[in-house]
Design a protein that fits this description.
Blueprint (H helix, E strand, L loop, with lengths): L2 H13 L19 E2 L10 E7 L5 E8 L2 E8 L5 E6 L21 E5 L5 E6 L26 E6 L10 E3 L27 E2 L12 E6 L20 E6 L4 E4 L24 H4 L21 E2 L6 E5 L10 H5 L13 E5 L9 E3 L11 E2 L5 E3 L3 E2 L6 E2 L3 E2 L5 E6 L21 E6 L9 E4 L18 E6 L5 E6 L10 E2 L8 E6 L4 E4 L13 E6 L4 E6 L14 E6 L28 E6 L5 E7 L3 E12 L13 H7 L7 H29 L3 E13 L3 E7 L6 H4 L5 E10 L6 E9 L15 E2 L2
Parallel strand pairs: 28-30
Antiparallel strand pairs: 1-33, 2-3, 3-4, 4-5, 6-7, 7-8, 8-9, 10-11, 11-12, 12-13, 14-15, 15-16, 16-17, 18-19, 20-21, 22-23, 23-24, 24-25, 26-27, 27-29, 29-30, 31-32, 32-33, 34-35, 35-38, 36-37, 36-39, 38-41, 39-40
Length: 767
């Protein structure tokens, strides 16, 4: 490692509250092959996307369609059970989705999940609390005029649909359970219109499930103005609902000043997309999915519920003293309201809380373009991935002090001498920001990726998008997707080989490393477009991808949800530290089983298993092969010895000898006919049998390797052109614990030269 890069790694650790790393090369933890979790042993989802992983790691929620039933689902990562959160109703199979038509929510989208997996927030146009709908003066529920308008709900998974409290309306008025009334709303036609109330995927709910952040995109009655109770609230406002106290707080508010009372909603709309960002008049962004996003919300809340971050517009109306700085920024904006950039507010501070800009306060400028009609085409947290802008919510750590964002926010040095008018589309990069609620302390920004040359085309090896950001609860891991073949990393060291195409990456801020997390069953990079992703509090990452090579035999040309787990590093990241750090208690390992299988050139399969503790590990490889021919019971299997046993004894007389020969010939012809008949009857008959196996004893939580070799009777398949495909059934049993089991595909295929005169090794722990 160069001295310059070592200093950058040390600076990264300091900026995020950790100790500087030693100058020795950092070690990395490898990722196991990603496993598909959007499906069951019997059926795979037609498509699945927008995964949200519970911080405790036990559950994942996602949006998808199973057997034609669409909506939001939750999977138990322990036993693999999949439950409907809010889905369509299937009259032919009521157990599959919603129990009745009144609770059908086929357009439910963009889930977020609480830390323990009990509560799931999502957006839908359905009315899931029909008994309390606001009709004929009823006090609670959605207003009847809001039919077809998106709303935000929270599902309590410990209550059955139809039971009181199973679905709670989160987009409700302050002090009651009555829904927000919108002045206008239109049908989305299969996708949400830029209207109503919507929640961003994976980042919209607090760890305990009691608070939800969302964006109100329509003009509404969200806020009650003092002295003007009937005055409508401008559209595009960020709000937080506390489900325990029935309070709704507007977050995108004015700081106070000339003619603007403190604490009122931003008059031009505080969150993208807004009328301020799109010009006066109606919104010009097409309705529907924008990039990977499934809703028009960029509001995120921290795990403790005390902090909110969002992609803001009309910034001068929300951040005190920011107007002149924005108006003179790059891009030729006529007004600071046209900017789009991530904002942050510590709402736990109450009326003393203030809104701050995450990147500009740290000295970074913004590059954004505007289309022919004046709408924002690219801006602070936009990504150039196609014709439509992809706007992304920030991601917050548990305490809200670490924020991960994707933005077009180059340093002034990177833009020196660049003709901005000729740059399109701009490059996007990932940033980790350490924020303090002290007004005198500027945010500490760590660029995780960097665009050195803004005149560089997006098709260059170091060009391309960076998008879909996520952060772990402790703020030490940041995940993002990138289409770059080569990375420019100002504060990280890339420890996995570069890969082209869309891939998922994990930045370990404590180690100062960047590693590819999208690993196929054979160790190759993913071969398809990456979508949204999410991190837990341990070592797991979930992501959506349309790749068809992540698991063997995948033939569905649609995104699926995958789980990738980071295996422990084989060596410590540094031999010494530059300064002492306090000791912390090590987290207890989760009782899960991680396994990967890699084909070896000698025809064996190397199985790598991470066991959670002491116990017995067993691996059995089973394959579907043609049935072996068997002789009748009690008869030899055939061959020269068998034919001799059936031949009559030779006679010493010629006539009897000839007669005996004729009898033997008839017996031989009949036997051959029977063998041919058995061969025809057995042709095409397949049977599943064990072709290899091995056992090992684990003394503690560790990563073990077992080498499996197919039986000698199946060697012809191993040496064939396609090899021997099998499913590895891996089980781990320990006293007092539930038995763990996983299934991993593998192929026994010899690609190297075969050694002669050496007996095949038996399966066992690899050296």
């Amino acid at each position: 490692m160069s001295a310059r890069r070592a200093k950058l790694v040390a600076a990264c650790a300091l900026a995020l509250g950790g100790a500087p790393l030693a100058l020795s090369p950092p070690a990395s933890a490898s990722f196991a092959a990603a496993g598909v979790i959007s499906g069951t042993a019997a059926q795979q989802f037609e498509e699945a996307r927008a995964p949200a992983l519970a911080a405790a790691g036990g559950y994942v929620a996602f949006q998808g369609s199973l057997a034609g039933v669409s909506g939001v689902w939750r999977r138990n990562l322990g036993d693999g059970a999949i439950e409907a959160v809010a889905t369509a109703h299937d009259a032919n199979d009521p157990q599959l989705g919603a129990p009745d038509a009144a609770l059908a929510a086929p357009d439910a989208a963009a889930p977020s999940i609480s830390a323990e997996g009990r509560y799931v927030a999502f957006t839908t146009t359905a009315d899931l609390d029909p008994e309390h709908a606001a009709a004929d003066g009823a006090p609670e529920g959605e207003p009847a005029a809001d039919t077809g308008c998106p709303e935000v709900y929270v599902r309590d998974m410990e209550r059955q649909p139809g039971q009181e409290g199973a679905y709670l309306l989160a987009s409700a008025l302050d002090g009651s359970g009555r829904g927000i009334a919108f002045s206008s709303c239109s049908e989305g036609g299969g996708a949400f219109a830029i209207a109503g109330a919507q929640a961003a995927p994976a980042v919209a709910i607090s760890a305990d499930g009691s608070e939800v952040a969302f964006t109100v995109l329509s003009e509404s009655n969200l806020f009650s103005y003092p002295g003007a109770p009937g005055r409508p609230t401008p559209p595009s406002q960020v709000a937080v609902r506390n489900l325990r106290t029935d309070t709704t707080t507007v977050v995108s508010v004015t700081p106070g000043g000339e003619g603007s009372p403190a604490g009122e909603p931003a008059p031009g709309g505080g969150a993208f997309p807004s009328q301020a960002s799109e010009g006066v008049g109606s919104l010009r962004i097409v309705s529907g999915q924008l990039g990977d996003e499934l809703t028009a919300s960029t509001a995120a809340i921290s795990g403790d519920g005390g902090t909110v971050a969002w992609l803001g517009t009309d910034v001068p109306e929300q951040v005190s003293g920011s107007g002149p700085e924005i108006e003179t920024g790059i891009g030729g904006a006529e007004s600071g309201a046209l900017e789009a950039e991530p904002l942050w507010r510590h709402i736990a501070g109450g009326s003393a809380a203030f809104t701050r800009r995450l990147l500009v306060d740290a000295g970074l400028d913004f590059f954004y373009n505007r289309g022919e009609l004046g709408e924002v085409v690219r801006g602070g947290s936009f990504v150039a991935t196609g014709d439509a802008p992809l706007f992304l919510p920030p991601a917050l750590s548990e305490d809200g002090d670490t924020v991960a964002v994707v933005a077009d926010a180059p340093s002034p040095a990177a833009l020196r001498g660049v003709e901005l008018g000729g740059v399109f589309p701009p490059q996007s990069d990932a940033y980790a920001v350490r924020v303090s609620d002290a007004a005198s302390v500027a945010p500490q920004v760590v660029p995780l990726t960097e665009t050195r040359d803004y005149d560089m085309p997006s098709g260059a090896p170091t060009g391309g998008f960076v998008k879909d950001v996520a952060v772990s609860p402790d703020g030490e891991r940041v995940a993002f997707d990138s289409g770059r073949e080569a990375m420019t990393l100002p504060a990280l060291v890339q420890v996995s080989p570069p890969a082209g195409g869309s891939q998922a990456y994990l930045a370990n801020l404590a180690r100062g490393t960047l590693e590819r997390a999208s690993v196929a069953w054979n160790g190759e990079p993913a071969g398809g477009e990456m979508e949204l992703l999410s991190l837990d509090g341990a070592h797991a990452l979930v992501f959506a991808s349309s790749a068809t090579n992540l698991f063997y035999g995948d033939a569905i040309q649609a995104p699926e949800v995958y789980l990738a787990e980071e295996l422990p590093a084989e060596e410590p990241p540094a031999s010494e530290q530059l300064q002492a750090t306090p000791l912390e208690a090590l987290p207890q390992p989760r009782w899960v089983l991680d396994a990967t299988a890699t084909t070896q050139g000698d025809g064996s399969v190397l199985v790598r298993v991470h066991t959670p503790g002491a116990g017995r590990l067993a691996v059995h490889a089973r394959a579907q092969l043609p049935a072996r021919r068997r002789s009748p019971a009690g008869a030899p299997a055939g061959g020269r010895r068998a034919r001799r046993s059936r031949s009559p004894r030779r006679s010493t007389h010629s006539a009897p000898r000839r007669a005996a020969r004729r009898v033997a010939a008839r017996h031989s012809a009949r036997a051959a006919a029977r063998r041919r008949e058995r061969g025809r009857a057995g042709a095409g008959t397949l049977t599943t049998r064990t072709v290899a196996g091995g056992v090992a004893a684990a003394q503690a939580a560790a990563t073990m390797q077992l080498r499996l070799r197919a039986a000698s009777s199946d060697r012809s398949y191993v040496d064939g052109a396609h090899g021997l495909y099998a499913i590895l059934h891996i089980t781990f049993a320990a006293p007092g614990q539930r038995t763990l089991s996983v299934e991993v595909p593998a192929t026994f295929h010899r690609t190297g030269k075969r050694r002669r005169g050496r007996a095949p090794r038996r399966a066992g722990v690899a050296p």
